[in-house]
C-alpha cells in the first residue's frame, strides 16, 4: 500500500486552504485554485528533493519520516518523466 499524506480542507480568511499533512499547503479562492497551488508547491519540494536530497538534520528540526521522503521521491520521478503528479498526489 502506498503512503499518501492526509489531505485536509480548511477555510482561512474566506479562502480555501488545502493541506497535505504537514508537508505543504495550497491556498485559493476555490478548491481548484487551492489544489493548483498545492501541486505547484509540492512539485517544487519534490524536484528539490530529487536533485539534492536532504542535508543532515539539525538537532532543532525533526527528521522527516521515511514514508514522506519516499513519497516526495516518487513524485519527483513522476515529474521528471514528464507526467502529471496530480494522480499520485490526490490518490
Task: Give structural attributes.
three-stranded antiparallel β-sheet, 91 residues, alpha+beta, 3 strands, 19% strand
Uncertain stretches: none
The number of helical elements comes to 3
Which value, in Å, is the CA radius of gyration? 14 Å
Number of domains: 1
Strand order of the largest sheet: 1-2-3
What shape does the CA trace take?
globular
Structure classification: alpha+beta
State the major sheet. 3 strands, antiparallel
The level of helicity is: 40-55%
Distance between the termini: 11 Å
Percent in strands: 15-25%
Sequence of secondary-structure elements: EEEHHH
Notes on the protein architecture:
The protein is α+β, with helices and mostly antiparallel strands. Helices cover 45% and strands 19% of the residues. The protein has a 3-stranded antiparallel β-sheet with strand order 1-2-3. Strand 2 and strand 3 form a beta hairpin. Helix 1 packs across helix 2. The radius of gyration is 14 Å and the shape is globular.
Amino acid at each position: 500500500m502506498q503512503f499518501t499524506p492526509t489531505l485536509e480542507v480548511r477555510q482561512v480568511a474566506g479562502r480555501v486552504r488545502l493541506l497535505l499533512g504537514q508537508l505543504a499547503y495550497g491556498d485559493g479562492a476555490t478548491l481548484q485554485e487551492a489544489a493548483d497551488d498545492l501541486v505547484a508547491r509540492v512539485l517544487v519540494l519534490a524536484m528539490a528533493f530529487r536533485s539534492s536530497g536532504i542535508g543532515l538534520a539539525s538537532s532543532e528540526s525533526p527528521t522527516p519520516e521515511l514514508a514522506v521522503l519516499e513519497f516526495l521521491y516518487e513524485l519527483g520521478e513522476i515529474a521528471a518523466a514528464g507526467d502529471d503528479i496530480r494522480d499520485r498526489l490526490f490518490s
